[in-house]
Amino acid sequence: MKNIFYIHSHITYFVAKGVIKYLGFNPDSLIYIISRSYQNDALSKSKCIDFTLIHNELDSFGVLNFNKKLPLIKDVDNVLKNVLKDEEFRVFLPHVFHPIMQIIGTNTNCKELHIIEEGVNAYSNYFMHFKEKSIVKGVVKRILNLLPFVGKGRIFFIKNFDLRKFKKSINPIFYTVTSKGFEGLPYEIVRVEMISEKVAQYTLKSNHVLVLEGAVEQGNLNLKPFLEGIKVILNDIKSDRIAVKFHPAQNSKNKDKILRIIVDQNKEVEVIPDNIAFEQIILNNPNLTVYGFATSLLFYAKEFGCKVKYYEHQLLKDNLFKEFRSKNDFNLSALLNES
Prior knowledge:
This protein is an alpha/beta fold.
């Protein structure tokens, strides 16, 4: 049986490594599905399937265009058939909200489905149960899921960790790298070790690191309060040298504005390369002081020994971000204070 891991971020890669070690999988059994254009030199010699294009096509799957998107189910099945040669597999997914993950999980040869942590969602109270915030929304989803021509029994309108549509003989296991992941879900939860990556060592020149999110580019935050918040953080950093870890979604124009603000504060700045995982850095440098707003990387930094200072309250002055935060229900403050 093959073991397939769906990797679209550094954290999913590191959790996958922990699961592989924990379960003792043979390297020859491993296949990695890549999406969101994820790149990692450590996977260069591994068997990978790049589903970025199909993933992006299915991003907009809905009641108004499902007819145009349904042929992609066959496309995914054909790729899996060509790679696996009809061999059975178990799959480790970040969630089952996205159609492509549902298609993989309902493939005829998928005999087991498990979940690996991918960040914020593993700590959001809203995703630790199956109820919808709106009764009407819940009813509409149930009706759509009952209509066989909409998702063909392969695509559903469900929440991230609702696995009730995926009937397998083996019960699902949720894998996390912290003490708080998936807390409250009615599934078995296993904590695995986050393992340092030997091929991607990186030496920081500063012990002060600013970690940023892509909320502006993702439409969840206005730019002005974001930049103003960065100024507040910089005023609190007494060192004249800092390192910055940008989010992959951040565009070059906004990066330049942020770097200009840092230089204007008379600070020397070191930009951590995009291909270097921040998870890797905190594993090798537990003496860091990490600054940021609301990214889950702050929680990981605290869990692995770093000192953390968070400024989410600065972003909550923005109505757009306030609305976003109310939806994903990620309580960073509680996590940091409890860890």
